[in-house]
Amino acid sequence: MMKLDKTNTMRYCRHILLPLVQEEGQETFLQSHVVVVGAGGLGCAVLPYLAASGVGTITLFDHDTVDITNLQRQILHDESSVGKNKAQSAHNSLTRLNSTIRINVFDTALSEAHSETIKMADVVVDCSDNLATRLLLNELCWRYNTPLISGSAIRMEGQIIHFPMRAHDPCYACMASLFGEQSLSCMEAGVLSPVVGTIGSIQATEALKSLLNIAPEQVTLMLYDAHQLQFKPFVIHKRANCPVCSHQPISRQHRETAQ
Length: 259
What we know:
By secondary structure, the protein is an alpha/beta fold. Helix content is 37%, strand content 17%. It has one domain: NAD(P)-binding Rossmann-like Domain (Rossmann fold, 3-Layer(aba) Sandwich), CATH 3.40.50. The protein is globular, with a radius of gyration of 18 Å.
């Protein structure tokens, strides 16, 4: 388990200076485990900030390979990465950024078989690009009471939402019932490259806040319009008949006690 010592205090001193972080918060980062699903546009923005911040263990899922069209926005990959697995390519870049942290790589798609990984995570960041993966990830996070940070981006728009997965909170399935699946992908509709960086950076911020036990009072969907430079919040309410979160999950405290 990583600890704050003389060799890394200077590295993280700008965090330590923050009243909301200090030495205790940086120790928390060093001892935390964050799962990131997807090393595409969003993941390539989330991952460097988590690694640079000193998150002690990062587990990364992505079964896709780097394509030349990805390089416009997926900044962890370079020209030499084309044809390589995205998770492996991201691992190489992140190791150069911070060699002191542990990075676990799954070059496969997330499935129910990976439920134990979600259970052991302190927070999960959803950077996937399809509804099926998002819904599965949401179900696993609700089952194990693991906070979930979800994001998406297309054209010049994006959205971010932080699900603390408390008993009274809504989950991603509650929101999905309101909006349904996005009909177009970046391949079909395009995306301005810094938009994924904006959304991913906010996802990383929310993940670090979650590790510091700074959770939103209300679960709020934040919509970003890059064209108009506007953020619009929408409070998401829990669905009484949600097939996922209408049943109270086992609390994290109860699980740790049972173990």
